[in-house]
Write a structure and sequence with these properties.
Layout lengths: L9 E6 L2 E8 L3 H9 L1 H7 L6 E7 L6 E7 L5 E12 L3 E8 L6 E11 L2 E9 L3 H9 L2 H21 L1
Antiparallel strand pairs: 1-2, 2-8, 3-4, 4-5, 5-6, 6-7, 7-8
Helix pairs in contact: 1-2
Length: about 160
């Protein structure tokens, strides 16, 4: 796990049950927080380019739920859901994450945003129930999907900031 050529995302195994992803974004953290939490923005960056987000529901409050449904080019749909646990704009967001095709495998994502000189460092720490779950996620190709999503987020931030 490391930084891939041409990508600013760094992926690390932080512990036996955690993955830490870090990315520097060229935007102020208030804008980054907004793009992480508003459906009109999430639709544009979350997931690989090859899929279309057909549903993006966000109830941004502690205890509120989120659910995203994506469609691949062959028409297959994939749903993801979770619940918000902590919302502290503009520097912290915590929620659960579950792929609906694998019920019961719930991780917790802690996102930390820090800003310096107009740029934001996003640190996403994902905690799994076991080392086996963490390793299965790594083996699933999650790293390349995360890189693509972060690239898309950077593109969206550039577009929104330039608007």
């Amino acid at each position: 796990m490391t930084e891939a050529p041409g990508s600013a995302l760094v992926v690390e195994l932080a512990s036996d049950t955690q993955i830490r992803m870090t990315r520097m974004l060229n935007a102020p953290r208030a804008l980054v927080f907004e793009t992480l939490t508003k459906p009109e923005h999430i639709r544009q960056w979350w997931g690989p380019r090859s899929v279309t987000m057909v549903s993006c529901e966000v109830d941004l409050r502690v205890g509120g739920a989120w659910r995203f449904v994506q469609r691949d080019p062959d028409g297959g749909e994939y749903a993801f859901r979770g619940e918000y646990r902590e919302i502290s704009p503009p520097d912290r967001l915590t929620y659960t994450f579950e792929f609906e095709e694998m019920p019961g495998h719930v991780s917790v994502e802690d996102i930390f945003l820090t800003e310096a000189a107009g740029k934001t460092t996003l640190v996403n720490v994902v905690t799994y129930a076991s080392r086996e779950e963490r390793d299965a996620v790594i083996e699933s190709g999650m790293e390349s999907g995360a890189r693509e999503s972060m690239d898309r987020l950077e593109e969206l931030l550039h577009a929104v900031a330039g608007a």
